[in-house]
Design the sequence.
């Protein structure tokens, strides 16, 4: 369930995106375009903090089962000015008794241009363990590639090279890229593709802008939002038959405030419960709780 969230949180974050717009110099025509990625024009700044509560519904079960946080810091990485995004999620103490989950993602990417540099993942789901360590090898002479050291308790250790181009991101980096969208260039109900890497593979997913609406978010209030949907990959959590729905704040921050995803058994959702360090005023409030 909580894996759903973290995957969905990051995917959600991704889908914060269904609309990247505004050409970025050097980006391939197959990418979703974004606005200017100069640091001063970004929708966020170092010090931003977001916290989400994870909720699960199935039959008589209707309760909060976990939480996740997203932190953004700045640092120098191999001589480059960079951001570090840390995403952490876990089940509550009560649900630890049934199925203990801990998810820890970290992503390093340039502050100017949002070019991914490194990614790590440390996952514990019951008895299952998965670890990812990516290094983005940007080398035009030898060919761009992701050098991946991946481990899972089911498949063991593997060292692989994954394809890399200017449209490929890890999930946290894609989330922050996605928040720099230009709605003047995004068409409603049109599929926009994007590529992300996780474990030992690269996946394609598409996003659709569904429009604007006022949304009541438990514990937050009524918020002006922009709604997106994303097609999820079928697997051991998602059904692959329905879309993930995401509502982001309709202001310059573009923060996910709510998302819902059908899973194999029941429905998982996440809602924003706390935020701080925002670059812009949270002006999308219609009415606070």
Sequence:
């Amino acid at each position: 369930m909580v894996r759903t969230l973290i995957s969905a949180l990051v995917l959600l974050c991704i889908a914060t995106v269904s609309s990247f717009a505004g050409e970025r110099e050097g980006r391939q025509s197959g990418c979703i375009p974004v606005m200017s990625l100069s640091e001063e024009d970004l929708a966020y700044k170092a010090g931003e903090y977001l916290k989400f509560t994870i909720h699960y519904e199935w039959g008589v079960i209707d309760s909060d089962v976990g939480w996740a946080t997203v932190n953004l810091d700045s640092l120098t990485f191999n001589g480059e000015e960079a951001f570090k995004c840390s995403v952490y999620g876990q089940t509550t103490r009560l649900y630890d008794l049934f199925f203990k989950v801990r998810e820890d993602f970290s992503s390093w990417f340039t502050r100017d241009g949002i070019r991914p540099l490194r990614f790590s993942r440390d996952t514990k789901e019951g008895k299952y363990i998965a670890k990812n360590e990516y290094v983005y090898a940007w080398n035009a002479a030898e060919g761009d590639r992701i050098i991946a050291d991946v481990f899972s308790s089911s498949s063991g250790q593997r060292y692989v090279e994954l394809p890399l181009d200017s449209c490929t991101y890890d999930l946290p980096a894609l989330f922050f890229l996605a928040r720099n969208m230009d709605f003047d260039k995004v068409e409603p109900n049109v599929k926009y593709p994007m590529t992300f890497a996780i474990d030992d593979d690269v996946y394609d997913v598409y996003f659709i802008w569904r429009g604007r609406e006022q949304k009541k978010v438990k514990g937050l209030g009524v918020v002006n939002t922009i709604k997106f949907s994303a097609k999820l990959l079928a697997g051991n959590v998602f059904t692959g038959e329905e879309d993930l729905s995401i509502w982001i704040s309709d202001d310059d921050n573009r923060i996910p405030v709510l998302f819902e995803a059908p899973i194999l058994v029941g429905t998982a959702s996440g809602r924003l419960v706390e935020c701080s360090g925002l670059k812009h005023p949270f002006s999308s409030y219609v009415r606070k709780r």
Observations:
- The two ends are 27 Å apart (CA to CA).
- The CA atoms of residues 20 and 143 lie 26 Å apart.
